[in-house]
Design brief:
mainly alpha; 4 helices
C-alpha cells in the first residue's frame, strides 16, 4: 500500500484494513516528516506495525538508486519482524 505522505491521516476504511492486518513492515521517509509521523503510526498500530527504515537514502526509491537490493531488504525485514513477534 502507498499512503502518499507521512503526515496524512487515513480514511476510515484504510484504518480498519490496517488494524486487522497481520504484522507488516512500514517504511517512512527518513526525513523530518517521517520522523514526526512515526509516533502516530507506532501508537495507532502498535500491535502489528514494524517501522522499517531504508538502509540508505531517504526512501525505498532512494535506496534503490544507491544500489540497495530492495528484495533482500524486504526479506530481511520480514524475517526480523517474525523474530520480534
Amino acid at each position: 500500500m502507498v499512503f502518499g505522505g507521512a503526515g496524512k491521516r487515513l480514511v476510515t476504511q484504510a484504518h480498519k484494513t490496517l488494524s486487522r492486518m497481520p504484522p507488516f513492515l512500514f517504511s517512512l521517509d527518513y526525513d523530518g516528516a517521517g520522523r514526526n509521523a512515526s509516533s502516530f503510526w507506532k501508537t495507532a498500530y502498535c500491535h502489528n506495525i514494524f517501522l522499517y527504515p531504508t538502509p540508505e537514502g531517504k526512501s525505498p526509491g532512494g535506496a534503490l538508486q544507491k544500489g540497495v537490493d530492495l528484495r533482500r531488504w524486504v526479506i530481511e525485514g520480514i524475517e526480523g519482524s517474525r523474530r520480534k513477534s
